[in-house]
Design a protein that fits this description.
Strand order of the largest sheet: 1-2
Distance between the termini: 41 Å
Radius of gyration: 25 Å
Low-confidence stretches: 1-6, 226-233
Order of helices and strands: HHHHHHHHEEHHH
Oligomer: single chain
Structural class: mainly alpha
Number of strands: 2
């Protein structure tokens, strides 16, 4: 393909991406970190503050309950079958986590917590109240806390009170979270998902650099300084 004579390499601003693959990994690990590594400080701080701030606000709205993985098992095993597709839908119950995961290290505890619950181990007590753990089912609660009576487990994980101060029993803890947090649960989920999807754009920027809009062939780029100089003459 012939080069466009009206567009030379000098027309395109050069950005030193350093090790672009490492920068992309750092940008996923902590939003903005890849850009700081590339010495693009302004953009790095902008991404770090806005993306992590959006994620933190979503966690605040959702009471710290909106980021969790429903399962650590791969959604589709080797081979495609009717059973595999059924299991894929079963394990994709919290599909929102796939959008939250690109925000980086702050979303990784959810996978560890889900793995521990599936393995019959109590979740880690991170930042209090089992940070980013999946909601329990009655079977999970019985398996993880055999020393507690059913009444104690129900009172702690599956019961709440309505506006009339009457006790309401929920089949799962997720239903309890939705009842207690109301629409804030969905709002918090959306904010954390938006943070993850925004970081996808930041990762692409760290890997391939900024998108540069070149002028169409034969059209001179706008240069306000030149226009002013010509008008003054």
């Amino acid at each position: 393909m012939a080069e466009n004579p009206s567009q030379t390499t000098s027309d395109v601003p050069e950005v030193d991406l350093r090790n672009a693959r490492l920068a992309a990994f750092l940008a996923w690990l902590v939003p903005g970190l890849g850009h700081l590594y590339q010495r693009r400080t302004g953009k790095g701080l902008l991404f770090m503050i806005t993306i992590l701030g959006t994620f933190a606000y979503g966690m605040y709205l959702g009471g710290g309950r909106v980021v969790y993985a429903s399962s650590t098992r791969p959604p589709i095993p080797m081979g495609i079958s009717r059973q595999a597709i059924a299991r894929a839908f079963e394990n994709a119950g919290r599909w929102h986590y796939f959008c939250q995961l690109p925000v980086g290290v702050v979303a990784l505890p959810a996978y560890v917590q889900a793995w521990r619950v599936e393995s019959g181990k109590a979740p880690l007590d991170l930042f209090g109240d089992n940070f980013e753990r999946p909601p329990y089912t009655p079977l999970d609660a019985e398996r993880l806390f055999p020393n507690k009576s059913k009444t104690e487990r129900d009172a702690e994980y599956f019961q709440t009170k309505d506006f009339n101060e009457e006790i309401v029993y929920h089949a799962t803890e997720q239903q309890k979270w939705n009842h207690d947090l109301n629409y804030n649960f969905e709002l918090g989920t959306v904010f954390t998902m938006v943070a993850g999807l925004l970081n996808v754009l930041a990762i692409c920027d760290a890997r391939w650099g900024p998108l540069v809009a070149l002028p169409p062939p034969g059209e001179k780029p706008d240069n306000p300084g030149t226009d002013k100089q010509e008008s003054s003459e």
